[in-house]
# Entry
Amino acid sequence: MMRYKVQKIAFAAFTFLFTMFVFLNTYEVVFNKDIAFASSIRKVSSQKTINSAIEEFATKNQTDEINASGSLDTMEYLEVPSLNIRLRVEESRKIGTLWYERPGALHRIGLNKNQHGATIDYVLYGTASWRSITDPDRIEKGVTANVVYNGGSSSLGFTVTDKKVLPIGQSLIVDKSESRQLLLIIEKPDEHVFYGYSMELEK
# Structure
């Protein structure tokens, strides 16, 4: 009889802890809060790299050429067909002054706007993992990536024009193009490096 009661108590405790874990993870995602013991969002390591990219591209010249492209504020996926890569894109997450991510996804940050107020260039940041991309080194200069947006009904092609592998915390310096650009930052915290790519809109 005592053994049966112990099993019931143990099962009830496990159920309660599991329910609390699910609740805390859901709370993190919905309210964009960093909760101890939850793992739905995590602080990225490349804080300085992201912030320096935002500051650097704030000075990019505005040109008429990039007005014709559709808005990418609704981007949902970044695809690299030749490498069979498809990464989900979500809105960036910021708590206080720090950038966070949902593991397995990329997050977008608008960098600057043209004279009509449309966001032109973006940073996309994320972490290499089995849920996203296991080996970012496979992405090379010249590779074509597609940005899927508007509920999957539209896409734009971008070409990788620059690639760098740098220590985490270092700035990602790339040439500013007159075309629309994406800066892709994929970090590998266990190796203390990040992969940085500049992608330009295909003409």
Remarks:
- The chain has two domains: 1-40, 41-201.
- The helical segments are 2-31, 47-57.
- The chain has a mean pLDDT of 81.
